[in-house]
Amino acid sequence: MVIKRKSDREIEIMRSAGRIVAGALAMAREIAKENVSTEDLNTRLERYVLQKGGIPVFKGYRGYPKSICTSVNEEIVHGIPDQRKLRIGDILSVDIGVEFNKYVADAAITIPIGEISEEARSLLQVCEESLNKAIEKVSANNKLSEISRSIQEYVESKGLSVIRDYTGHGIGRQMHEDPQIPNFVSKELLRADEILLQGMALAIEPMICVGKYDTEVLKNKWTVVTKDRKLSAHFEHTVVVTENGAEILTI
């Protein structure tokens, strides 16, 4: 494992990338409504990123065809935008990564489309709060496993499940860098636990679900869904470790 600490100059560039990500997600919240297609969201957010001088880093990444990921209801991550129109009661996870001057920031939100069920509303609230609790654990000299533990304990205390097959990650010059950041604690994580150091940049992204955490990938070879087809939510921020806590770069 090679974890790259970022200099002040690198962090400043990542702040710029993060501001573009935040602006794109704010736009997604505004335009994700009933009868809007996920393809329309992709087109408009891509245009926004390019206008701000960024590069949509997902597009072409390992062959991914679009600039954002749009995952609806039981879809966890990597949903591909298409002509599907959003409906009242849907929950939509929007994930976007932006490269700016060769550095990357990445974030995700889950958006309610109109009135949603109480079950869905609680899912979104717990997922976002688990991210906030994880970020509170980010500080120099804390352990990486404390981030994972905070997510798992909070989510499971609410009777929900943490997805096991996909994780957060380091970030910087590449979208995916060391370390991996699971949303649960395992023996493997504890054996390879890392001490957080000032300048580490992390993309923390709890993915949680109402039912069991088992997943499968659809025939398009990208979209990940819950195997039991129950609802899933996803929130993410890019943060940098400081001496006194976390600086969130994607707000």
Main pleated sheet: 5 strands, antiparallel
β content, as a range?
Answer: 25-35%
CATH superfamily: Creatinase/methionine aminopeptidase superfamily
Indicate the percent of residues in helices: 25-40%
Overall shape: it is globular
Structural Rg: 17 Å
How many beta-strand runs?
15
Q: Helical segment tally?
A: 5
| Oligomeric description of these chains | single chain
Helix and strand succession?
HHEEEEEHHEEEHEEEEEEE
Structural class: alpha+beta
GO cellular component, one term: cytosol
Keywords: Aminopeptidase, Hydrolase, Metal-binding, Protease
Enzyme class: hydrolase
Cofactor: Co(2+); Zn(2+); Mn(2+); Fe(2+)
Folded structure, characterized:
This protein has 251 residues and is an alpha+beta fold. The chain has one domain (8-248): Alpha-Beta Complex (Creatine Amidinohydrolase). It is 30% helix and 26% strand. The chain has helices spanning 8-31, 38-51, 118-136, 144-157, 187-191, and strands at residues 55-56, 69-72, 75-77, 91-100, 103-112, 161-162, 168-170, 177-181, 201-204, 207-209, 215-217, 224-226, 232-234, 237-242, 245-248. α1 (8-31) packs antiparallel against α2 and α3 (118-136) runs antiparallel to α4.
